[in-house]
Amino acid sequence: MRRFISVVISLACAGLVGCARNEDPLRYPPAVVTSPFRLPGAVVKGAARGWWKLASQPVRYGDPLPVGVTMYCLQGTTRRGRYVRGGIVAADPRFFPLAKYIELYVGRKYLGRFLVDDTGKKIHGARIDIWTNSCREARRFGIARGTAVLVHQTQSDVRLAGAVRKPK
Predict the structure, then answer these.
(1) Is residue 50 part of a domain?
(2) What CATH number is given to the structural domain containing 96?
(3) pTM score
(4) What residue numbers bound the domain in which 65 lies?
(5) Alpha-carbon distance 28 to 31, whole Å?
(6) Cα(160)–Cα(168) distance, rounded to whole angstroms?
(7) pLDDT tens-digit series, residues 114-136
């Protein structure tokens, strides 16, 4: 330890003297610092490929679920009898119940909050299909790996047109 302190002091003094003479900067060989501690590497494994086949219940609120994300552009009505529109997704009702909301992420990108309003013949397991009005955009999107989280619907203040709000 004393040797280390004396080296630091001598380097500081040499730096001060070197600065006072306005010569070329002092050059020291690079120092390699190694730690005496060796830690084994940590391996973080994702879900197994067919993990969803063993699932026996729907996802709980707040649990992140790895999903495959695609887009579709079909016209018509959803499984719940409403017209397709932006902001809805098709999902397997064994995982994401109809009429519930999910938040969807692809990598670190947040795609938004969607209403699970549709199902599909090819939507089995952990897969989310986002509706878009552009078939070109759906083809361009392809298939992505993402994360879906089942969330509670936030209460919104809806008023009818022309209705007068009474003060409390």
Answers:
(1) no
(2) 2.40.40.10
(3) 0.59
(4) 58-151
(5) 9
(6) 18
(7) 999 999 888 888 899 999 999 99
